[in-house]
Amino acid sequence: MAKLYIGNKNYSSWSMRPWVLARALGIPFEEVMVRFDFAEADSQFHKKLQHVTPAGRVPVWVENDGFAVWDTLAIIEHLAERHGDAGVWPQALNDRSRARSLCAEMHAGFSALRNACPMNIEAYFFDQGKTLWVENPGLRKDVARIDELWSEALAASGGPWLFGKFSAADAFYAPVAVRLSRFALPVSAAAGAYVERVLAHGAVQEWTQAALAEQQYVPEDEPYRKAR
Fold it and tell me: Phi and psi at residue 31, in whole multiples of 5°?
């Protein structure tokens, strides 16, 4: 069985995307957790990954023969190649291209949202969210663009997911839904309803419950808390 190397579920938005997609589509894999321990002199994270990928980052998908694919977008495309009938991408050509565009925009952009509102499933930062919303125009711009992308896709597809059926596009934006909910950032009614659907999805719920059970504090990923 293929293996998916991931980081802490509470923090690792990059790991969450392929994990949620594979689980949602029934693509089998064995999870390999590589705990974040960047600050430790004898970091097991770096030692373990150096034998898996030269990139030294998660996620990494490793096939039975040892062939490794790293980077979230590359993993998604690899799964589409190997499991073409699983529904990684929408069936219609234009929908597939649009879904790839949404994923690529997420993959490369929204730095203000990433930097100001890091992934943290177990914590809620409503007060910080209010302050950030007022003081950070880049954050407001990112959220407005995400709202626009979601609203247009949902209107075109009729929902409940961005392209009708759950696909890579929804998995890519699952961590965004987490960020919006944990920081209580304002979005339109359509985007807000979509956030709730994403958070309630079975694969996202499975990831969330496992994240809550970790109970590990990683200072490098905690700009707003000094302890759990």
Answer: -80, 135
Helical H segments across 65-157, by residue range? 72-82, 93-108, 111-116, 126-135, 137-157
Which residue ranges of the chain lie beneath pLDDT 50?
none
Greatest CA separation for the chain: 51
220 touches 39 (CB < 8 A) = yes
Residue 39 has a pLDDT of 67
pLDDT of 85-96, one tens digit each?
A: 999 999 999 999
What 8-state DSSP symbol labels residue 163?
B
pLDDT at 201: 98
Position 117: which residue type?
C
Q: For residue 134, which of 201, 185, 195, 191 has the smallest C-alpha distance?
A: 185
**Token pair for 64:** 């039975």
Of 185, 141, 161, 130, nearest to 20 by C-alpha is: 161
Tell me the Ramachandran region of residue 71: left when phi exceeds 0, alpha when psi lies from -120 to 50, beta otherwise: left
Please tell me the predicted confidence (pLDDT) of residue 46: 85
Query: What pTM did the predictor assign?
Result: 0.96
CATH numbers and ranges of domains, the chain = 3-87 (3.40.30.10), 93-207 (1.20.1050.10)
